[in-house]
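User: tokens in, sequence out, please.
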């Protein structure tokens, strides 16, 4: 990307029967500081546009950009197997949903795009379609061969997760010292690199009630979490914890930190979503390119009605564009200092 060019982002709407396609149309109409190219099924997007009382005519992504008018939406066609019905996901379309994500990831790694913005997918439908899938975070991590961290953020709080889409029964076993240390290092680097926080303060939650109550309510805090924090503090990281999760999100405590690391999905995300559902976004830290998603799901109850709120997808576009610019500036500076 040239230093003055707008970031070029791949926008993947997600499950065709959900609200993703209509939110993608709304995001394309938003004046973003980015060039957006949709990876998805053109017919679905055209029907989604109708639900918003508008039309969408797409140009192939490799068309001469100078020919595009303001309505010249750009598309990498990833056709669905069957026409989708809003509100009713069809497992036969699982392959194209996942293919669109993979193609966008491939294009980023090839340097053709500066980042990926994703709408919601329906995890159960992808699995019903015969594709083992726990989340796009995990899919992109495996594709890039990187360990990553999921972090959701709004103006009030940033919440990262030490484990993501795991049954609760498996969480304690997954919380090894190695995993926790790598998670904190990726989170720390992401806050520094993508958010410009030079010396981030991170609050780390315990796993058990009252952070284990000195070992009387569980020993993970004593045996795993505290030793990792001690090691990383010795490396200079500003970490508090392990903290009792029930009070760690009090506003005066949040004011002292840049992010909270929760041990599992539903320890951290309900607080984040309660504090501001509409503008929150979901980031994947640790990938070679920025990936930002909506914080919400497919909202099948609203799909095709044109009433779903596009704020999270618009915030995701803006966040991804901002991070793409930060990364580009860093690369340019590095190039200059290496020269
Ligand atoms: N980024 C992603 O791909 C995510 C995908 N999901 C998937 O979505 C599916 C459905 O998940 P649910 O738990 O039902 O959560 P959901 O977020 O789809 O719906 C929960 C509630 O929030 C409302 N809602 C969601 N998005 C909205 C929007 N943009 N505007 C207004 N209201 C909105 C819905 O109408 C519903 O009442 C699941 O398969 C889940 O795995 C869930 C979270 C994130
Ligand atoms: N709750 C967040 C979520 O499910 C989104 O995960 P992912 O599909 O972005 O990995």
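Assistant: Sequence out:
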């Amino acid at each position: 990307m040239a230093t003055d060019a707008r970031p070029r982002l791949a926008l993947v709407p997600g499950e065709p029967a959900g609200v993703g396609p209509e939110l993608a149309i709304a995001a394309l109409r938003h004046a973003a500081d980015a060039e957006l190219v949709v990876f998805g099924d053109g017919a679905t997007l055209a029907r989604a546009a109708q639900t918003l009382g508008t039309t969408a005519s797409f140009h192939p992504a490799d068309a001469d950009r100078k020919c595009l008018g303001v309505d010249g939406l750009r598309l990498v066609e990833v056709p669905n197997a069957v026409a989708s019905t809003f509100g009713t996901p069809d497992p036969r379309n699982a392959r194209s949903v996942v293919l669109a994500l993979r193609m966008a990831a491939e294009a980023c790694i090839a340097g053709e795009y500066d980042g990926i913005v994703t709408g919601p997918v329906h995890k159960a439908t992808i699995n019903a379609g015969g594709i083992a899938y726990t989340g796009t975070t995990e899919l992109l991590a495996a594709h890039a061969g990187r360990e990553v961290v999921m972090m959701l953020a709004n103006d009030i709080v940033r919440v990262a997760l030490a484990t993501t889409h795991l049954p609760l029964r498996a969480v304690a076993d997954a919380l090894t010292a190695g995993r926790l240390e790598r998670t904190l290092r990726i989170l720390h680097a992401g806050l520094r690199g993508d958010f410009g926080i030079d010396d981030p303060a991170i609050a780390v939650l315990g796993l058990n009630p009252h952070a284990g109550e000195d070992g009387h309510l569980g020993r993970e805090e004593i045996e795993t979490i505290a030793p990792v924090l001690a090691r990383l503090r010795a490396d200079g990281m500003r970490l508090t914890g392990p903290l009792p999760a029930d009070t760690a999100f009090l506003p005066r405590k949040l004011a002292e930190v840049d992010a909270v690391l929760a041990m599992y999905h539903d320890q951290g995300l309900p607080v984040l979503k309660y504090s501001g559902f509409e503008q929150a976004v979901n980031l994947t830290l640790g990938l070679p390119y920025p990936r930002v998603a909506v914080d919400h799901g497919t909202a099948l109850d609203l799909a095709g009605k044109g009433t779903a709120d596009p704020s999270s997808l618009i915030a995701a576009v803006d966040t991804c564009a901002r991070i793409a610019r930060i990364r580009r500036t860093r690369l340019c500076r590095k190039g200059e200092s290496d020269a």
